[in-house]
């Protein structure tokens, strides 16, 4: 017997019509009651032909209401006369009520009450599987985000961390909303990408393992699913296709065919390359053969050949978004026109950026003749980060300016001012610009550091410019969400990407209180504040170098606060020892971050003092903690491996 039948039987209302009960949803106070004391007259209505995102939205609404009220609303595809409806997604009933997705932008939605029915209708499509979140355009999730908005407002739902233990839902006996409710929701930024909540696959990890970039296989399908579901709860998404990967080596392969071109050009046309014949026997280098070896951008035939390869790939693949980014790594050139040599990098600056943009514009002009709907992406990165003075990118080119190690540079006034100048300049001359950052390179060796001040500065700065499309945040590119490292940062950042006008201080307070409870919240907040202050002090006192400077910070920044941070963690663990499991689990994520820090400090000290056996034992203990499956939502083991492959913490 369902809730409605039980209610009728228990109250002796079997002789009354179902419509009588349904009409009682609106009370005299202009309030719409959806659930009251275990009973409801509502059902969830969706179109049977709706895309996956709408089905996920309906199922999530059903789950969340049941979690809060213990009442399970039915999901139907045809309205039941005796019930009121919560309509999720575009539907004939919504259309008749005048609630449609017409004119809505990606990920946007309406929430509206009309005649006792509730409409949660957004812009939805099936461009990608719903939980695929990557650098490409994600499925529009308007109706799902309408459900998330509804749950946040009326169920006090929050998702501070991934998985069931990261969720907060307030238990209630009555679920009521205003009978004249009307909300229009939309994200401020169109690109809201956090690497730690993006789609990970076993195949992707295997590639890095085979290349030697990571030391262990960490992939877990359940955690991968929890991470991307968390990403949708955080309202992440990419509203257009931004393809900006390093690409010249793929469009113009030198020594072996690529996935984009079967023709190899190195032997037959060495003149197509900045260093004819390559360097040390190879045009491109690195485990992925994707570094260095730039093409010669001053030869018109190179632009033509590259464009023809794009056209051929577009015809065979159906793709219409393409990267034109130079290769990663050094910009070496043996030609006088670049001002470079085999022994030194070409000088970066606006002249080089201008030359790259002219070359790219030439390629784009050719491709657009065949595919006028095509879009292109280019990284403004290292040698081409300085905006040009006299060249503007074709309107079909999206720019992504890259600033790695942002929180390190932010602490130094000169570095910060230069970043701010570059960010403003690109957005003043380009139509569509997305900031990309490998924020602490590859996860700061999996050591804790929360940087709300940096994130606030960055988002508020981006929000000043209409040309700011959004952010591609890479905290720990190869890992699941490492909450013991980042603390409140991913949740706070997701809130700002949706609405940059929010107060970071208030968001932090909400996170700490909501995630850890009133007893542990001030302790965890002080813990991260202590680390942040020490990192700032240390960075200011040391000369800033990019990746090569990172290990020098560890001993002074973390060593000087070791006792205080251990005391705060111990007090936080004790504060939640008798609390609900979710609080204990969340505090344990943070505690694992500090435990790894202590082991790292001890291992570094042992290595430097020559205590070989002790050093080996400590490095092994550090490795065991990183590889512990319970650490997958606390630490960043794969990114730590990648960072150490470039610059080991210690020779051992």
Brief summary:
The chain is an alpha/beta fold and 652 residues long. Helix content is 43%, strand content 12%.
Can you offer a commentary on this structure?
With 652 residues, this protein is α/β, with parallel strands linked by helices. Helix content is 43%, strand content 12%. It is built from 21 helices and 18 strands. The protein has a seven-stranded mixed beta sheet. A six-stranded mixed beta sheet has the order 4-3-5-7-6-11.
Write out the strand line-up for the largest beta sheet, numbering strands in chain order: 13-12-18-17-16-15-14
Pairing-aware structural class of the strands and helices? alpha/beta
Separate helix tally:
21
Would you identify the regions where 5 or more consecutive residues have pLDDT less than 50?
A: 1-24, 339-346
Largest sheet: 7 strands, mixed
The averaged pLDDT comes out at 90
Primary descriptors:
alpha/beta; globular; 6-stranded mixed beta sheet
What order do the helices and strands come in, and which of them pair?
Blueprint: H1 3-11, H2 18-23, E1 31-36, E2 39-40, E3 42-45, H3 52-69, E4 75-76, E5 84-88, H4 92-96, E6 109-114, E7 117-122, H5 142-154, E8 158-159, E9 167-168, E10 174-178, E11 182-185, E12 191-194, H6 202-211, H7 221-233, E13 237-238, H8 248-251, H9 300-317, E14 321-323, H10 350-370, E15 375-380, E16 397-402, H11 406-410, H12 413-429, E17 433-438, H13 452-463, E18 468-474, H14 483-486, H15 489-498, H16 504-541, H17 551-559, H18 562-575, H19 581-609, H20 612-627, H21 637-646
Parallel strand pairs: 3-4, 3-5, 5-7, 12-18, 14-15, 15-16, 16-17, 17-18
Antiparallel strand pairs: 1-2, 1-10, 6-7, 6-11, 8-9, 12-13
Helix pairs in contact: 3-5, 9-10, 13-15, 15-16, 16-17, 16-18, 16-19, 17-19, 18-19, 19-20
